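FIELD: query
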Amino acid sequence: MPSYDRPTPTLNARTIRCTHRSAIKRVEPDGDGCAECLATTDEWVHLRMCMSCGAVRCCDSSPNRHASRHAKTTGHPIVRSMEPGEDWLWCYVDEVFIVP
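FIELD: result
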């Protein structure tokens, strides 16, 4: 099973190959934190935003892994890091970073 959370990417040729770029939409975050964690008062480590619908969910380093669950249940393949200073995207399906 693939891991749905990755460290900050190292830029190389692999970071630009993705067959799901058409799923990237102009979206706004649906909140300031992981909506599912906030509803249950759980904590998260990092936040990711779905580039198909704007859902903000927690990363796989977080206990609940809501971002990868969102991707699996909705079929939305790409998230963006919501961490300050990070501007990378991740495609769950192709398992590659996307540099904007």
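FIELD: remark
The CA atoms of residues 57 and 69 lie 9 Å apart.
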